[in-house]
Amino acid sequence: MRLDRLPISVLRTRYVPGGWDLLAFVLVFAFFIYVAQAAHGLIGSLTRLEATPISLAPSALIGYAARTALRMLIAMLASLLFTFTYATLAAKSRRAEVILVPLLDFLQSVPILSFSITIVFFLQLTPGRVAGAEMAAIFLIFTSQAWNMAFSFYHSLRSIPDEMLEASRNFQLGGWLRFWRLEVPFGMPALIWNMMMSMSGGWFFVVVSEAISVGNTTVTLPGVGSYIALAIEQKNLAAIGWAIAAMAVVILLFDQLLFRPLIASADWFRLEQEAGFTASHSWALTMMRRSRFLGLVARAFVSMLRAGVKERPAAAAAAPVARRAIDWDSRAVDYAWYTALVLIGIGALWKTAHFVLAEVRLAEIGHVIVLGSITLLRVAVLIALASVIWVPIGVWVGLRPRAASIVQPIAQFLAAFPANLLFPIVVSAVVLYKLTPDIWLSPLMILGTQWYILFNVIVGASAIAPELRYAGENLGVRGWLWWRRIALPAVFPFYVTGAITASGGAWNASIVAEVASWGKDTLTAHGLGAYISTATSAGDFQRTVLGTVVLSLFVVTLNRTFWRPLYARAERKFRIS
Amino acid sequence: MNATAPQLNLAPLLDVHSVCKSFRKPDGDQLVVLEDVNLTLRPGEIVGLLGRSGSGKSTLLRSIAGLDGPTSGVVNYLGQQVSAPARGIAMVFQSFALFPWLTVLENVQLGLEALGVPEPEMRKRSLQAIDLIGLDGFESAYPRELSGGMRQRVGFARALVVHPNILLMDEPFSALDVLTAETLRSDFLDLWGEGQLPIKAVLLVTHNIEEAVQMCDRLLIFSSNPGRVASEIPIDLPQPRHTQDPRFRALIERVYVEMTARPRGEPRTGPKSERFPGTGIGTTLTHVSSNVLTGLLEAVNEPPYNGKADLPVIAEEQHLEVDELFPAAEALQLLRFAEVEGGDMKLTEAGLQFARGETDDRKKLFARHLITYVPLAAHVRRVLDERASHTAPKSRFFDELEDYMAEDAAEQTLRTIISWGRYAEVFAYDDNRQAFSLENPA
What we know:
heterodimer, A: 577 residues, mainly alpha, two-stranded antiparallel ribbon, 25 helices, disordered N terminus, B: 15 helices
């Protein structure tokens, strides 16, 4: 987006024509062709889709991978659009904020599978066409990507320094220009990090989003996820291997062509060089910066920003504002708004209770809460175990920049690794050794999210000021004392951030981790995730809603009563000034 | 446009008329920050707003910029009321407020871009401004590549490029080191004197007295709580002004006298104890480290001062900025270790005793004065003594203070009392539990 900005070092080097331009050209047009081909499938009819079942041939994977990647990109664009509107509204309107932010909190805790009850709605939008099913799949991916991005942008908007806002107002920047010149760039570094996390989240749920089965409605869209689902059903280990390879390639491409350039360009948005921060490099970004063709595209974007701004006469600015008929800032309007919200809330509560209780007896609610507690216990034990393992490793890696640069991309790939791919190993082992699913299925829950603990601890350890480490060495602090007094306190705030993400992710993952199947063997653990999963595939909307509500309540309560205070404490205690 | 001869006969550019500003406290009461401020700005003059932190001078500047409207009163710019950021009034910020993702050129262009100026003209004017302010060659640099002084030059160029009538400056040099600030100030004054700047008048907010006397044609001294214009000092020295010039020193002395003067209406007679400020637990305390207090007492006690010092002299010798010196002097006055009046500081008997004492004696003396003369300290101690557990949460006192002052003032007052209480070993405070107690970790 900021391709028009050439750093001076590039300006000074002699422009080498051809090379980079050619590469950029080829890549851009290959991309267009690929999009066109992949999009072609969207408008086909559902009957044709059913007539051509998923093939497990490795060659078919190329097309599948393209389709899946395109879905992810569209979902990512939708998430960005959502982020820019929803978060902006929440940050700018005091009244919208009171409802939008808690709503986001809840949406984030709703597992992706629960959103699959909307599939019927999407199918009805375009009867007989694949487009409806595609929209449903993209919507499911969207629900695994959008929320944390919106949160990050909202926090960024709220933390723009006062003087910057005042400067933008003093220099008469209108809303549109301010958004693109101040707010978006300011939120970019955090947003990019969250986009990467979201992408991993999307991959983790790729099977759920492509092979959707709600009651009698079953849709299997061509893609990597459906391929994995079929391979699991047919117990085809070779196909699983191919799927892993295909995913690795696509994730690598995303990393090189999308996220590396984004991260490297995010360095521009920083005000100061931060501690423990190393400049990022990206060949793709270099290509884009040096390509004249992409430079033109970037300039077009910048002039588009200016298009909305017309030259204004000098006198207009000081003109007094006309008095408005209603004072929208008054407390009376506040009260009216809050009353309306409360009424809507009561209405929604009544409607939900009515809907759920028509099918479910009160005793079952108690049962669901017990199931929630079992899952809670699982999450707590797993987070504790993951912490014991990854914190020391993270500290060790973080203190060694070379090791960190190797470990970070690997961890990033592993975070995107769907739990379903491990089903063969876990299910076979449990069946073979007659193990308890209640215990041995649990590790699947933390499979994707444990890496966030590792990420954050690495960042924290590499941010320890060299002086602190030298002081420790100088005083001869070693062994357990060193961990207790220097390393652990230093990474604690970072660890808490990672653990919050990991815990939230583990709850979400419970729906794919508490039910695992390999061919005809299906193992079910006791827990809320299994409850929701079973209810969804049976098309039981009432129980799906009940399970989702209880799960959301668990997650939000845990966040408010445990994680948030812990985070506040970590922030306060480990800050120097 | 000649800085030395303000054209008093011209119509004012800016007319601030009985501006008041207050904020609503949590309990619904109003907290008055600015009270009945009047001010006119005419073409050709630089007017300085001088006062301590919390005197509302920055708030006033924001009202004039149209960033934050006054509660009552009007700000007129060229005869029209300012109710939104007005074109023709540009601002330079203390923290520079540059956009880190834009180059120097793009930062400067921003204001023109917002006005919809066509590209070629925008570029031409921006390069001119960059040239004028001495940033030639840095057009494509990012702010983070520049030093503080160069960054503020970008801030100036960005403001000048829109050709404003009025330039508002909010402590523009206070984030810079002394030498850089000096260079930037004199560069600005040179351009202003030569009539090269596309501006008609300047309003400067500062707490640096020397800077104010050096730059301004007129000074408005603000008093605190609530902020109002306490006095006005015309400065008719020709530019360039030399800091060692006796007339310059005399003006500085005069500003100090005005700034240490008691607000009108406060009793100057009566029993001695009433002549000291600070009554009740609702007094806002500015945090001053016990190190600074000790250092200042020792310095004034020693020759050549021997217990009585001229504030400008001691400020220079101790390298104290005004926003450090005045709170320190005020704290010493509150603790009855010194009296401040007429630009002088005179140690009391207790102050002299403190300066000559050893650490333990000092702490005892400090503790006695803290409990006797700072009602909040006495209050905290009394609550701790009365409670069986001898502990009390911070929030208990915080809520009490919020009846009297704004949230951040309450926070700062508590921070001060914690710091002084710890030094005097009158009570202890545990930040993890956010609680006061009587036990010291011995």
